[in-house]
């Protein structure tokens, strides 16, 4: 009996936050969402996850001992290194098996849900295209087929409404295994969504007359006539850098252009959950500095921008809207899929993910140098350093917004010093004015643009002091 109580207590202590989170999310979804068929699926998955992980903890953390049938104290001597290694391998095997079966169960449930909705009927669906990039020889088209959520926000929306909209974004109802027609001029291609509703297509050798700089547009629509549509068709935009481009710019989003407080958990959670694209804050001078980089040294270069973030695709619309509201240079928004996989619980980490994204951009445009912009709070320095080591001649400059200058770690300073070993200009910045001055010294922006950025930052500071 005591062992059973200990087993239940361990499961409760270690994993209670998971079912509680799911219960809260599911309850809100049942109240506010049009379709609430998925709440019980999450409850099943979380239940299995809790039971299997509790079993691992029971076997390897002192509950299962030789101290007697009713003993909860481990009287065994300290395990040897070989025994600990064996225990760790056994635990990893159990977790791998757990992950595999949860992944397969999730896929099975998704297929059953899809069949049920095919029979019962979907809510109006929308093809959500993602802004991507390409060349005259190859275009990358991507997006997701979802049930329309109606999560467009406004400046006067309450925090409660923003919270409900954010939960709806994460409660995405995707349409899997469905054909999408891609139209470019007179050319048409067909792509099928995957199990999570995503689609990716590499359009090779498009007709030259259909490819426009700096943006090429395609028309997307579902093939299935039985699917109700929230809109007749969607327009996808693909960035094709102009011949006049001098360099490209890769920018992070959180705490680089958008103030989110990523280094403070409570502040970050509040910003993410309770604000929309209108109420989120842009760092002063950022729009002017980015526009200056887009114009380049010539003043009319039309340099391409790429926004690379570790945020999930669920909030793509929010980030794209934020960029448009604040008149930042339009560019592909490259986010991350947080979905479960058989080989690991989540996709690659922040550093590895950004490295892969930037490397793909460099390989797509072998003649284009990049300016990398990030912040000191989310390992951007380390990701950018790895890129510099691999492509030292392709990086024009690196700018890192220093969120906590007074408490910068020794590890961060050591990594920052290594950029000089590869002759790549690197600097920590506190605001856009510092970045503009440094960029002007490298002939990345004009002196006129530098002055405009400084004036904007000074005006913003005076307004803040007045308040």
UniProtKB/TrEMBL annotation:
Query: InterPro entries from the xrefs?
Result: APP1_cat (IPR019236), Mg2+_PAP (IPR052935)
Stretches of Basic and acidic residues bias are at 447-459
Region named Disordered: 444-467
* Residue ranges constituting the Phosphatidate phosphatase APP1 catalytic domain according to the UniProt record: 247-402
- What PANTHER family does this protein's entry cite? PHOSPHATIDATE PHOSPHATASE APP1
What is this protein identified as?
A: DUF2183 domain-containing protein
Native organism is Salinimonas profundi
The lineage, from the top, is: Bacteria, Pseudomonadati, Pseudomonadota, Gammaproteobacteria, Alteromonadales
